[in-house]
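Need a sequence for this fold. Nothing fancy.
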């Protein structure tokens, strides 16, 4: 297992480098002059002053030289300084925002896993029943609905119309911190984030369990007189979980994209809102730093998923 983990970590580092190269190139190839992000529009600057600023920032160098300078600094933990935040260091800024995003994604994925697996089991056990059809219809709409549309409709219905949940933020402004207040603000965006993932997990769990229920060892367990509940939960569900575990790991990256929309709609102070503000203001160091941290988190989660896959089925050999 240790050689496998080291191999995956090495591959992950190479993937991070490739990701940073791609994002760096896209930012530099975007329309406009990068120096504009560093210039105060309310202060007139001569061309000579702009050229001097460009030289000081290293923007007069070829793109490969600029990227290597950034990569060398990033390897030491220096992700630069935010342009729009008066020289605030990027790394502490990103680490401050990653906590709320992890909380939102963890809550959303936890809801999706529990609801998706439970609904998939019920749907498979009651195949072609009204319950199965109902769950399938709900899953179809859940998979088909874009995250931004789900977020806006959920905000309007549950916050504006029904007043069941706060309309935004992570905590009530001016109020002392309490777990209840945090949960009140968390529950709606987490549930909306979980909709698409729960629907996808439900469909995979249903299909996988239906396949397992037709295996010989399941019929043998039934023939031995094992109660149907234990046949399903002990013999069938564990084997049916294998593709679902892989799916859950692969949805982490997709959940990041969904979290960006959720955070922007609910003004949730996480990485998604930070990234949107950075793109709007062309804050290149923040975009690069946030992308690097998000990529690293996705790679680590995928590695943990592979390890969990082997734990669920000891027959799986890592290589």
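Here you go.
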């Amino acid at each position: 297992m240790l050689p496998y983990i080291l191999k995956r970590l090495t591959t992950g580092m190479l993937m991070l480098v490739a990701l940073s190269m791609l994002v760096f190139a896209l930012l530099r190839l975007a329309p406009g002059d990068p120096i504009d992000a560093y210039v105060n529009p309310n202060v007139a600057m001569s061309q000579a002053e702009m050229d001097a600023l460009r030289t000081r920032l290293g923007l007069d160098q070829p793109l490969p030289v600029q990227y290597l300078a950034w990569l060398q600094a990033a390897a030491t933990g220096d992700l630069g300084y935010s342009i729009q935040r008066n020289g605030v260091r990027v790394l502490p800024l990103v680490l401050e925002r990653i906590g709320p995003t992890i909380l939102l994604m963890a809550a959303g994925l936890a809801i999706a896993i529990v609801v998706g697996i439970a609904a998939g089991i019920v749907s498979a056990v009651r195949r072609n029943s009204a319950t199965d059809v109902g769950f399938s219809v709900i899953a179809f709409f859940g998979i088909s609905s874009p995250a931004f549309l789900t977020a806006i409709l959920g905000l309007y219905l549950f916050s504006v119309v029904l007043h069941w949940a706060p309309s935004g933020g992570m905590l009530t402004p001016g109020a002392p911190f309490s777990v209840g207040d945090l949960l009140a603000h968390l529950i709606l965006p987490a549930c909306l984030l979980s909709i698409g993932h729960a629907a996808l997990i439900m469909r995979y769990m249903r299909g996988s369990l239906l396949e397992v229920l037709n295996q010989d060892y399941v019929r043998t367990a039934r023939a031995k007189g094992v109660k149907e509940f234990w046949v399903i939960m002990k013999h069938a569900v564990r084997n049916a979980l294998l593709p679902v575990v892989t799916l859950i790991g692969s949805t982490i990256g997709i959940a990041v994209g969904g979290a960006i929309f959720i955070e922007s709609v609910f003004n949730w102070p996480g990485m998604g809102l930070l990234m949107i503000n950075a793109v709007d203001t062309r804050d290149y160091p923040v975009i690069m730093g946030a992308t690097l941290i998000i990529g690293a988190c996705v790679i680590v989660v995928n590695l943990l998923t592979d390890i969990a896959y082997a734990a669920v089925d000891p027959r799986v050999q890592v290589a």
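For context: The radius of gyration is 24 Å.
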